[in-house]
From TrEMBL:
The gene is Klhl42. The lineage of its organism: Eukaryota, Metazoa, Chordata, Craniata, Vertebrata. SMART domains: Kelch (SM00612). This is Kelch-like protein 42. CDD domains: BACK_KLHL42_KLHDC5. It holds the Pfam family Kelch_1. Keywords: Kelch repeat. PANTHER family: KELCH REPEAT AND BTB DOMAIN-CONTAINING PROTEIN 13-RELATED (PTHR46375), KELCH-LIKE FAMILY, MEMBER 42 (PTHR46375:SF4). Signal peptide: none annotated. InterPro entries: Kelch-BTB_domain-containing (IPR052392), Kelch-typ_b-propeller (IPR015915), Kelch_1 (IPR006652), KLHL42_BACK (IPR044727).
Length: 326
């Protein structure tokens, strides 16, 4: 009888482990969050479970890439149940949307109020005061002086992809801003460098559409952190618009460079000139830049036909820095 009483009074293994697991509430990390979440479900620890869910919602895309995640989040949960992935996504999307602007805001209509020191590169808009305020984060050094990039929001992450640097060199790098953790992360780069393209979010994926003189399209999956080529555009397009509607991507407007006449370099002028203008000579329009005479015919309108025809493009691209909403 005494032996039975001693056995009954001895603490169980669960009673010994529970206090240890409770101490882990402040030690949830990307390397252990999925395992701690599983243990919290096994031993019925709601505090640890909620701590893991909150952490995984903040670091949603990084958690999706973990090989253990599919084991805890079956693709087809029971009827009426909310799967782990959907539960994390709903928690991540909770809150009031905020408009964010990227760029150089020293002066001008978007100058923040107030700011001290170096001008910020990221601003948030406050509707109550109708003013722009500095965000607690700035662009990473890799994104400084990058223009012509694609930007889109996916799962409450802001993605900045591709573009070109001041040297006109195109890049394929991709970065994401996580407002929950207030941090920038570098994700997988595209397979092809591109600029002046459109980035669209559709069905939990990103699509990099076209670009300067290219027609291919790439798709980014957060689960694999990888880009893959998908169906290309019918023709290379430039200066077009793209949007998503009911799961479909619509490409609107733009122009194609296919079939246009190439540029040719004429003889040099005898004297260098600045701020010159062009004039019509015969059937061609001549323009001079520095000491080289460049022959071009772009956007010629015939008074007899009454319409505008697109021909060769200028040799140098001129693109305004984009202002992207978040």
């Amino acid at each position: 009888m005494a032996e039975e009483q001693r056995v009954q009074k001895s603490p169980s293994w669960a009673q010994l482990v529970t206090p240890l697991l409770q101490r882990l509430l402040s030690h949830v990390r990307l390397s252990n969050c999925l395992e701690l979440y599983r243990l919290a479900l096994v031993y019925g620890l709601p505090d640890l479970r909620d701590a893991c869910l909150a952490f995984m919602a903040v670091h949603f895309h990084q958690v999706l890439c973990q090989p253990q995640f599919p084991l805890l989040a079956p693709p087809a949960p029971a009827p009426g149940d909310v799967g782990l992935k959907q539960q994390l996504l709903e928690a991540r999307m909770a809150g009031t949307p905020v408009l964010v602007a990227l760029g150089d805001f020293l002066g001008g209509p978007l100058a923040p109020h107030p700011y001290q020191g170096e001008p910020p590169s990221m601003l948030r808009y406050e509707e109550t005061t109708e003013r722009w305020f500095p965000l607690a984060s700035n662009l990473p050094p890799d994104l400084e002086n990058v223009r012509g990039y694609g930007a889109a929001a996916l799962h409450n992450y802001l993605f900045i992809v591709g573009g070109y640097r001041a040297s006109s060199q195109e890049i394929a790098a991709a970065h994401s801003y996580n407002p929950g953790a207030n941090e920038w992360l570098q994700v997988a780069s595209m397979n092809q460098k591109r600029s002046n393209f459109k980035l669209v979010a559709v069905h939990s994926k990103l699509y990099a559409i076209g670009g300067q003189a290219t027609s291919n399209v790439e798709c980014y999956s957060p689960e694999q952190d990888a880009w893959n080529f998908v169906a290309p555009l019918p023709n290379p397009l430039a200066e077009f618009s793209a949007c998503e509607c009911k799961g479909k991507i619509y490409v609107i407007g733009g122009y194609t460079t296919r079939g246009l006449r190439p540029w040719t370099i004429s003889d040099k002028l005898k004297m260098s000139r600045m701020a010159c203008c062009g004039t019509v000579r015969g059937s061609r329009e001549s323009g001079w830049d520095g000491c080289h005479g460049i022959l071009f015919s772009q956007g010629i309108q015939s008074p007899f036909e009454g319409n505008l025809k697109s021909t060769g493009n200028m040799p140098l691209a001129r693109v305004l820095p984009p202002l992207r909403p978040y």
